[in-house]
Write a structure and sequence with these properties.
The protein is of the alpha/beta class. It has helices spanning 2-12, 35-47, 112-118, 141-154, 171-179, 203-211, 215-226, 231-236, 244-247, 255-266, 269-277, 283-293, 324-333, 355-364, and strands at residues 68-71, 77-84, 92-97, 120-125, 161-166, 184-190, 311-316, 337-342. An eight-stranded mixed beta sheet has the order 1-2-4-3-5-6-7-8, sandwiched between helices. Strand 1 and strand 2 (77-84) form a beta hairpin. It starts with a helix and ends with a helix. It comes from Sorghum bicolor. InterPro entries: AB_hydrolase_1, AB_hydrolase_fold.
Amino acid sequence: MERLLWASTQALGCGGGKRGKGDDDDGLLVDPMGTVGQLGEWLCRAALQPPPPPRVCGSPGGPPVTARRVRLRDGRHLAYEESGVPREAARYRIVFSHGFSGSRLDSLRASQEVAEELGVYMVAFDRAGYGESDPNPARSVRSAALDMEELADALGLGDKFYAVGVSLGCHAVWGALRHIPHRLAGAAMLAPVVNYWWPGLPAEASAAAYARQARGDQWALRVSHHAPGLLHWWMRQGWLPTSTVVDNTTHLPNRRDAETRAALAADGTLRRKRDAATQQGIHESYYRDMTVMFGRWEFDPMALPEPTCPVHLWQGDEDGLVPVVLQRHVAGSLPWVNYHELPGTGHFLSAVPGLGDTVLRTLFG
C-alpha cells in the first residue's frame, strides 16, 4: 500500500529513481522499473484525467445564487450569513469558519439572549468552493485566512475582529494567526483538526494516532498529503477503501456524537447538508479541503510566535475524529493557548448543550 502511494507521487512528477531513508517522513523505497513503477504509470494516467469543472453558482447551468455575497479582489464571491446583534450595534464582531461538510448556516449555536447581552455579532461564510462561494483553484491555508480578512473589510467590521473556527475549518484560524495576526482581537478553535505531518508533533504519538484510524482514512489522508492530484480519482475508485469521514461512517466512541449523527442521518439532514455543500462539485469543496488541511503547510502551528490577542481552544477527550493526545501536545507546545478539555465529550461540540454560550462568555464575559 505505502509503495503504491509513493509510486503515485513519483509518477505525478514524471520522475524516476529511488527514495531512500531520510528523503521523506516514511523512508520507503520505490523501484519504478518494477511492478510499483507500472502501478505508478497507471496512476499517472488516471491523474491526467482532471476532475469535472465546477458548476459555479449563477453561471449557465449552475445552481442559483440565493445568499448574500461579497465580491473579493480576485473577482470571487463569498456567500455569508449573519446572526447575533446588528453589526452596527455590536461591541464584538466574529468571523466564523465552518467545518468539513458545513456551510454558512453553521454557527456557535449560542443563544440570542447571550449574544444580545454581550453585544456579539457573527458572520459565517461558505468557504471557497462550498455552498454558494466561488471555487478557488489556488486554495490554501493562507487564502482561507485572507478570505476572512476580506469578508470582514467588505462588511465594515473594523480594524480588528475575532476569528472562530470549528473542526477542519480551524485551518483558517491557524492561517489568520500566522498571516494576519494584526487584524485579530481574539481567536477560538473548537475541536480543531490536526495535520499528522506537522513537524512539531511527536513522531511516535502521531504515527500511533494515525494507525488507529480506519484503513480507508489512512489511505485518503496519505493521498491528500503525498499525491493531491490523485485524490479525486482515488475517492471515486471502488476497489480500495476510501474516507469514512466523507461517507459519514467513522466509528464515534462518544455516545452523544453517535446519537447526533444517527439522528441527522435519519431525518435527512446529513444528505441535505452534503448536497448544499457540494453543489458546485465535491472536488471544489470536500476534496480541496482535504488537500489543504492534510497537505504540506508553509508553517508549523507549534512554531507560531505568541500573538497579541487571546486564543482559546476547546477539545473533547472522547473525540473520535481528532486525537486528544495530539491536541494536548499542540496546546502544551503553545503556552499562550488557553486550553479547555471537555470530559466525556466527543467531536460534535455544537451538540453540547450551552457550549456556544460558554464560548461567548469566555471570550467576552
